[in-house]
Amino acid sequence: MRVITGEYRGRKLETPTGYEIRPTSDKVKESIFNLLMNDTWGQVFCDLFSGTGSLGIEALSRGAKKCYFCDSARESIRLTRRNIEHCGAEERAVILQGDYQRTLDRIHEKVDVFLLDPPYRAGLYEKCLLKIDRLDLLSRNGIIITEHGSRDAMPESAGRLKRIRECRYGKTVVSIYRYPQESVSEEE
User: Fold this and answer.
1) Where in the sequence is the domain holding 139, given as residue range(s)?
2) Where are the transmembrane segments (predicted)?
3) Chain centroid offset of residue 5 CA
4) Fewer CB near the last or first residue (10 Å), C or N of the chain?
Protein backbone atom coordinates (compact mmCIF):
# COMPACT_ATOMS: atom_id res chain seq x y z
CA MET A 1 0.00 0.00 0.00
CA ARG A 2 1.40 3.37 -1.01
CA VAL A 3 0.53 7.03 -1.42
CA ILE A 4 -0.44 7.44 -5.07
CA THR A 5 0.35 11.07 -5.83
CA GLY A 6 1.09 14.48 -4.36
CA GLU A 7 3.46 15.59 -1.64
CA TYR A 8 3.93 12.10 -0.15
CA ARG A 9 3.86 10.24 -3.49
CA GLY A 10 5.39 6.78 -3.44
CA ARG A 11 5.65 6.52 0.36
CA LYS A 12 4.87 3.00 1.47
CA LEU A 13 2.35 2.80 4.26
CA GLU A 14 2.39 0.22 6.99
CA THR A 15 -0.32 -2.40 6.59
CA PRO A 16 -2.06 -4.59 9.15
CA THR A 17 -0.87 -8.12 9.80
CA GLY A 18 -4.28 -9.75 10.39
CA TYR A 19 -7.70 -9.45 8.83
CA GLU A 20 -9.21 -7.11 11.44
CA ILE A 21 -8.40 -4.06 9.30
CA ARG A 22 -9.40 -4.04 5.62
CA PRO A 23 -7.39 -1.36 3.80
CA THR A 24 -8.77 0.26 0.67
CA SER A 25 -7.03 -1.11 -2.41
CA ASP A 26 -4.87 1.29 -4.43
CA LYS A 27 -7.25 0.84 -7.39
CA VAL A 28 -10.32 1.91 -5.39
CA LYS A 29 -8.38 4.70 -3.64
CA GLU A 30 -7.28 6.11 -6.98
CA SER A 31 -10.85 5.90 -8.28
CA ILE A 32 -12.17 7.76 -5.22
CA PHE A 33 -9.71 10.60 -5.74
CA ASN A 34 -10.46 10.66 -9.47
CA LEU A 35 -14.12 11.21 -8.52
CA LEU A 36 -13.02 14.14 -6.34
CA MET A 37 -10.97 15.60 -9.22
CA ASN A 38 -9.32 18.74 -7.86
CA ASP A 39 -11.73 19.11 -4.94
CA THR A 40 -9.02 18.19 -2.44
CA TRP A 41 -6.85 21.29 -2.25
CA GLY A 42 -7.52 23.37 0.87
CA GLN A 43 -10.41 21.17 2.00
CA VAL A 44 -11.15 19.66 5.42
CA PHE A 45 -11.48 15.86 5.32
CA CYS A 46 -12.61 13.26 7.83
CA ASP A 47 -11.42 9.67 7.39
CA LEU A 48 -14.03 7.97 9.57
CA PHE A 49 -13.07 4.34 10.34
CA SER A 50 -9.54 5.25 9.21
CA GLY A 51 -7.96 1.80 9.59
CA THR A 52 -4.43 2.49 8.31
CA GLY A 53 -5.14 6.15 7.52
CA SER A 54 -4.48 5.52 3.83
CA LEU A 55 -7.42 7.55 2.47
CA GLY A 56 -6.85 10.55 4.72
CA ILE A 57 -3.11 10.55 4.07
CA GLU A 58 -3.82 10.51 0.32
CA ALA A 59 -6.06 13.56 0.83
CA LEU A 60 -3.30 15.37 2.75
CA SER A 61 -0.79 14.42 0.07
CA ARG A 62 -3.07 16.02 -2.53
CA GLY A 63 -3.30 19.31 -0.61
CA ALA A 64 -6.10 18.90 1.93
CA LYS A 65 -5.86 21.57 4.64
CA LYS A 66 -6.67 19.14 7.46
CA CYS A 67 -7.85 15.60 8.00
CA TYR A 68 -9.53 14.03 11.01
CA PHE A 69 -8.61 10.36 11.41
CA CYS A 70 -11.18 8.49 13.49
CA ASP A 71 -11.30 4.86 14.57
CA SER A 72 -12.34 2.87 17.61
CA ALA A 73 -9.65 0.18 17.34
CA ARG A 74 -6.38 0.84 19.16
CA GLU A 75 -4.39 -1.05 16.50
CA SER A 76 -5.93 1.12 13.77
CA ILE A 77 -5.03 4.28 15.66
CA ARG A 78 -1.45 3.01 16.13
CA LEU A 79 -1.14 2.20 12.41
CA THR A 80 -2.66 5.53 11.41
CA ARG A 81 -0.34 7.45 13.73
CA ARG A 82 2.78 5.64 12.42
CA ASN A 83 1.75 6.22 8.79
CA ILE A 84 1.08 9.92 9.43
CA GLU A 85 4.48 10.28 11.12
CA HIS A 86 6.19 8.38 8.28
CA CYS A 87 4.77 10.94 5.82
CA GLY A 88 5.51 13.92 8.08
CA ALA A 89 1.85 14.97 8.06
CA GLU A 90 1.36 15.49 11.81
CA GLU A 91 0.64 19.23 11.59
CA ARG A 92 -2.47 18.74 9.43
CA ALA A 93 -3.74 15.53 11.05
CA VAL A 94 -6.11 15.21 14.00
CA ILE A 95 -6.40 11.69 15.41
CA LEU A 96 -9.53 10.82 17.38
CA GLN A 97 -9.98 7.43 19.01
CA GLY A 98 -13.49 6.24 19.75
CA ASP A 99 -16.58 4.96 18.03
CA TYR A 100 -18.03 7.04 15.20
CA GLN A 101 -20.60 8.70 17.46
CA ARG A 102 -18.08 9.95 20.01
CA THR A 103 -15.54 11.05 17.40
CA LEU A 104 -18.13 12.93 15.33
CA ASP A 105 -19.25 14.71 18.52
CA ARG A 106 -15.65 15.96 18.91
CA ILE A 107 -15.44 17.65 15.49
CA HIS A 108 -16.38 21.32 15.81
CA GLU A 109 -15.98 22.60 12.26
CA LYS A 110 -17.53 21.96 8.86
CA VAL A 111 -16.02 19.08 6.94
CA ASP A 112 -15.83 19.24 3.14
CA VAL A 113 -15.28 15.54 2.46
CA PHE A 114 -16.16 12.58 4.67
CA LEU A 115 -14.59 9.24 3.76
CA LEU A 116 -16.68 6.42 5.27
CA ASP A 117 -15.38 2.88 5.18
CA PRO A 118 -16.87 1.06 8.20
CA PRO A 119 -16.74 -2.73 8.55
CA TYR A 120 -18.91 -4.17 5.80
CA ARG A 121 -22.34 -5.49 6.87
CA ALA A 122 -22.06 -3.87 10.31
CA GLY A 123 -25.14 -1.75 9.64
CA LEU A 124 -23.34 1.55 10.26
CA TYR A 125 -23.69 3.43 6.98
CA GLU A 126 -27.12 4.96 7.49
CA LYS A 127 -26.41 5.65 11.18
CA CYS A 128 -23.24 7.55 10.23
CA LEU A 129 -24.98 9.53 7.51
CA LEU A 130 -27.80 10.49 9.86
CA LYS A 131 -25.38 11.50 12.64
CA ILE A 132 -23.35 13.70 10.27
CA ASP A 133 -26.58 15.32 9.05
CA ARG A 134 -27.98 15.77 12.57
CA LEU A 135 -24.76 17.41 13.79
CA ASP A 136 -24.69 19.58 10.64
CA LEU A 137 -21.00 18.75 10.09
CA LEU A 138 -20.98 18.63 6.29
CA SER A 139 -20.17 21.89 4.54
CA ARG A 140 -22.80 23.24 2.15
CA ASN A 141 -21.12 21.86 -0.98
CA GLY A 142 -19.48 18.96 0.81
CA ILE A 143 -19.74 15.29 -0.06
CA ILE A 144 -19.69 11.98 1.76
CA ILE A 145 -17.96 9.10 0.02
CA THR A 146 -18.89 5.65 1.29
CA GLU A 147 -16.99 2.51 0.36
CA HIS A 148 -19.04 -0.66 0.79
CA GLY A 149 -19.55 -4.17 -0.46
CA SER A 150 -21.71 -4.85 -3.50
CA ARG A 151 -24.16 -6.76 -1.27
CA ASP A 152 -24.59 -3.89 1.21
CA ALA A 153 -27.94 -2.13 0.80
CA MET A 154 -27.35 1.59 0.82
CA PRO A 155 -30.13 4.13 1.39
CA GLU A 156 -31.17 6.54 -1.38
CA SER A 157 -31.32 9.23 1.28
CA ALA A 158 -30.54 9.74 4.95
CA GLY A 159 -31.92 12.84 6.62
CA ARG A 160 -31.30 15.70 4.18
CA LEU A 161 -28.54 13.77 2.37
CA LYS A 162 -29.19 12.19 -1.03
CA ARG A 163 -27.18 9.59 -2.90
CA ILE A 164 -26.04 11.23 -6.13
CA ARG A 165 -23.73 8.63 -7.60
CA GLU A 166 -22.67 5.02 -7.32
CA CYS A 167 -19.57 3.46 -8.92
CA ARG A 168 -18.73 -0.26 -8.92
CA TYR A 169 -15.22 -1.69 -8.75
CA GLY A 170 -15.67 -5.46 -8.69
CA LYS A 171 -17.03 -6.40 -5.25
CA THR A 172 -16.47 -2.87 -3.95
CA VAL A 173 -18.94 -0.04 -4.49
CA VAL A 174 -18.45 3.67 -3.84
CA SER A 175 -21.60 5.72 -3.16
CA ILE A 176 -21.53 9.50 -2.93
CA TYR A 177 -23.95 11.55 -0.82
CA ARG A 178 -24.50 15.28 -0.60
CA TYR A 179 -27.20 17.80 0.12
CA PRO A 180 -29.49 18.44 -2.86
CA GLN A 181 -28.27 21.52 -4.70
CA GLU A 182 -31.66 23.24 -4.49
CA SER A 183 -31.50 23.14 -0.67
CA VAL A 184 -27.95 24.53 -0.81
CA SER A 185 -29.18 27.44 -2.97
CA GLU A 186 -32.01 28.14 -0.53
CA GLU A 187 -29.55 28.39 2.38
CA GLU A 188 -27.36 30.98 0.63
Assistant:
1) 27-127+134-187
2) none
3) 17
4) C
Prediction pTM value: 0.91
CA 47 to chain centre: 4
The span from the CA of 87 to the CA of 59, in Å, is 12
Q: Is residue 21 part of a domain?
A: no
Around Cβ 167, how many Cβ atoms within 10 Å? 15
Residue 95 main-chain phi, psi, to 5 deg: -105, 125
Q: In which element (H, E) is residue 87 found? A: helix 74-87
Q: How many domains does the chain have?
A: 1
- pLDDT digit string (tens) for the chain, length 188 residues: 889 999 999 999 998 775 555 567 777 888 888 888 777 899 999 999 999 999 999 999 999 999 999 999 999 999 999 999 999 999 999 999 999 999 999 999 999 999 998 887 778 999 999 999 999 999 999 999 999 988 888 999 999 999 999 999 888 899 999 999 765 444 44
